[in-house]
Amino acid sequence: MPLLEVKDLKVHYPIRGGILNRVQRYVKAVDGVSFTMEPGETLGLIGESGCGKTTTGKAILGLCHITSGQIVFDGEDITKQVKKNRSPYRKSVQMIFQDVFSSLNPRKRVMDIIAEPIRNFENLTPLEEKKRVEELLGIVGMSPTVATKYPFEFSGGQRQRIGLARAIALKPRLIVADEPVSALDLSIQAQVLNYLVDIQEELGLAYLFISHDLGVVKYMCKNLAIMHNSRFVEFGTSEHIYENPAHIYTKRLIAAIPDVDPTKRDENSQRRNAINDEYTNQRDKYYKEDGSVYDLKQLSEKHFVALP
Amino acid sequence: MWKTVVRRLLILIPQLLFISAAVFFMSQAMPGDALTGVFGEMDVDAQIIEELREEFGLNDPLLQQYGRWVWGIVTEFDFGRTLTQGRRPVTDLIGERMANSVRLAILTLIFQYALAIPLGVIAARRRGTVIDKAIVLYTFAAMAMPTIVLALLMLFTFGFNLSWFPIRGSVDVLLETGSFAYFISRIHHLILPSITAALLGTVFIINILRSEIIDAQNSDYVTTARSKGVPAGRIYSKHILRNSALPIVSMLGFAVAGLFTGSIFIETIFSYPGIGQLFVTSITTRDFPVSNALVLMTAFLIAMGALIGDVLLTVVDPRIRVR
Amino acid sequence: MEKLLELKNLTTSFRIQGEFHAAVDGINLHINKDEIFAIVGESGSGKSATAVSIMKLHNPLFTRVSGEVLFNGRDLLPLKEAEMNKVRGREIGMIFQDPLNSLNPLMKIGAQIEESLIHHTDFTSAERKERAIELLNQVGIKDPERTYNSYPHELSGGMRQRVIIAIAIAVKPKLLIADEPTTALDVTIQAQILDLIRDLQKEIGSSIIMITHDLGVVAEMADRVAVMYAGQIVEIAPIQELFQNPKHPYTRSLLAAMPSNIVEGEKLNAIEGIVPPLQNMIRQGCRFAPRIPWIDASEHEENPQYHQVGENHYVLCSCHKTFRLKGE
User: Fold this and answer.
1) Which pLDDT value is given to residue C320?
2) Which chain A positions have a beta carbon within 8 Å of C194's beta carbon?
3) Residue C169: is its pLDDT beyond 70?
4) Residue B143 burial class via C-beta count within 10 angstroms: exposed 0-12, middle 13-18, buried 19 and up
5) Closest chain A residue to C277 measured between Cα atoms?
6) Domain residue limits at B178
7) Model confidence band, residue B323 (pLDDT cutoffs 50, 70, 90)
């Protein structure tokens, strides 16, 4: 049984205006997205700013209003209760944020930050709670002595690890990670990614890994969804998408990744230009007349693409 | 944009209605009425007072009184008649005081900005120097200073001891109306109260301006301008000042409205016959038609001030495009 | 090869709680004419402070700059503001990281481009407008007339960055400093902007200093690279040499930390510890030593020197000779 099934998810935001402040039109942030995730899987959600990837994550977490569609978690339709506080679903799905500086309350000690979800859901004695926090700190590679410190005493990478400890405090089954390493330096990014992988193996977690960095996603994820204009343009395994991209948008995205081999500069540049030409001149082959994305169709067992 | 203006004006109707009700019923809840105020201490026949109450409609049910009041305002712009000052229409009474208050407000505003802009800019440009510290010290002192204390001090020093300025009234009534000397006399009467009000009111503008300029100095677009080789003077005039003025522009509407309400102490101490003074008298004499009308007027002014501030902001800031 | 810019013992110190601490600690380097030179490093390495010091854009209240910044043989550091303003924009242009905040939100695009022209040319206002539109065209903006009359918020991030580039090249400066020019942009836009910068460099024949944290961007753009760590240049090399034959432990650790350099199933190389904050930086010995504790102290120099390891390839400290990544 899949862990998470998202069926035809739509999130539309109304734009109001006029004398009576009535809804004039809608911004379609997410417009018909479907996918499934197995337990322990990492699914990468990739796209450029404004494509709807963050809104998709928020909808799953119940942080925004779902216009239509269905979210099934562990076989149970939880579309109606995603927003409910303290539901078992809320316990099973957690998130980590991009901005490590504002996502931890500066006036709380590390101890209280990590224990907060525990206090919301479980009744532990102070001693049990302390033990649990120390255990969690150990999982993310930090010494128990940091529990009494405040967030400002930590570097970006350490803060993200504290955020991770908080996210796994309730033993969730799915973590939505929204650009978790984008704000971090390369060396620190590696640290955090390694912890994410270790913890996944240890706890059997599934990650919905939202990112714009194709290098990171390729390393982290077995399956990828490429998002553009509020819909998936391509979905499949990493190999399929990197070796054999079918949609022009995917090709363009992959061609744009800077190559660390300086000898291939001209070659890359030429390929990039060719793809860009195709993208601008042959758009009608890949997009509907109004510019929207087609429905996904199956290319092979694990490879879907939005083509007519 | 006009749609937003219309919408905001429409929202104003229920807001004013609510305030009018609140004001009306709260004033009725106060002990006594205008007639207790006037006759209470004197030995007047209770019969006469009762007759007067009947005549003024003060014995009618409250809801009926309120309805009559609102109806008069809506249909004829009639706020009722004053109960103490010769039964004149409230609008007349406010109208003649209004001109005085507007004069005071305009001069105060001019002094405020004439002080705030140079002081704010100097403090920000010379941040951390002695002159900046002196300006900051002044703003703190002025914030801590109660209006009454400064007003009495000014009145005593410049009006009473030095006799540079008149100590009461709005004009020398012996002069011929409309003559040049009459005009000069008006200004002469205005200077002391308006400077007093400006000295205190300006510190908020100074503080905002100073911190906005300091923020702007460190902003990326100023760095860009500097990297183009734009000289410091032009950076201030073209980049920093205009951007720092935005919050002040949005405050301008409030500032104007605030001047009317804030001048209560000033007008009372300088015995300046303006709205503020009228407000105080009307409350002490329980002349509710007058005080209620003034509260409504203030509410309206504040709402309009906010609207004007917002409209001005859309003019200065291209990022704000209201549909 | 002719040198355009030479930094000699450049030291930039910031005031933190009343004391000055060097963020750039006595670096020496030169940039040749017609060259793209990259300075790469992580936050706290001093790379941006170097860029801003060349332009003297730091607030003098909180910053102290010493050493020499020789531009065409003339030292810029002693120049007065008025003289420096003739260099800024005219001789050296700068491209910034954040395309939204780097433009004045209340000023039309055209006016912001023309500002450089007002100060560095004798153009009439008609000529300025013509030149501004020509520049917008040159940086690949499709509708230059309309953009000329637009405000920054009406443009997309990529367009804004093109405008910033137009401003920087308005008077065809001989040196362009690009401080993380694509960090805030999406990857497809980044590719376009990098292409644009490369094309313009050939077109107007200037040198470019690229400040970046992204080794991919370096590989795509630069002719030569300096790697900075904790205020020092730890390695400086021609581009291919750096990627094929990296020497300094820091360079090697960074390359091994890149997810795209990893074979599937392997672990990323995380560098232990953190870049020390400025106030606590130990300024003796090899500054990278605390982050590679498995390397014996005797491998480092007490007073690290530059060692030549190839043509135009220099490495700081002797620890590169025996360094191996953890687990190697």
Assistant:
1) 92
2) 258
3) yes
4) exposed
5) A155
6) 93-286
7) very low
Give the amino acid at A197: V
d(CA B153, CA B159): 9
CA-nearest of A225, A174, A196 to A72 is: A174
Both tokens of A292, joined, read 């929207």
Q: Which amino acid is at A216?
A: V
Under 8 Å between Cβ of B142 and B151 = no
| Of A215, A252, A269, Cβ closest to residue C259 | A215
Nearest CA in chain C to A50: C186
Of chain B residues 239-298, which have a CB less than 8 A from chain C? 239, 242-243
The one-character DSSP state at B238 is: I
C320 vs C307: CA distance, rounded Å: 10
Q: Number of residue pairs across A and C with CB atoms under 8 Å?
A: 107
pLDDT for B44 equals: 64
Give chain B positions within 8 Å (CB) of A19.
3, 6-7, 10
For residue A259, give the nearest of C237, C260, C69, B81 by alpha carbon: C260
**In a 10 Å sphere around its CB, with 0-12 CB exposed, 13-18 middle and 19+ buried, how is residue A189 labelled?**
buried
pLDDT above 90 (res A140):
no
Summarize pLDDT for C73-98 with one digit per residue, the tens: 999 999 999 999 999 999 999 999 88
Rounded CA Rg of chain A: 21
pLDDT at A23: 81
Q: Contact C96/B243, CB-based, under 8 Å?
A: no
DSSP letter at C270 equals: P
**Numbered ranges of CATH 3.40.50.300 in chain A:** 39-62+80-228
Indicate the CATH number of C3-228 among 3.40.50.300, 3.40.50.720, 3.20.20.150, 3.40.47.10: 3.40.50.300
Domain ranges of chain C: 3-228, 230-320
Q: Record the tokens describing residue C191, joined without a space.
A: 């590719």
From CA C210, how far away is CA C176, in angstroms rounded?
A: 8
**Contact across the interface for B317 and C116, Cβ inside 8 Å:** no
For residue B12, pLDDT over 70 is answered with: yes
CATH topology of domain A39-62+80-228: Rossmann fold (3.40.50)
pLDDT (average), residues A126-154 = 89
What confidence score (pLDDT) does residue A232 get?
A: 95
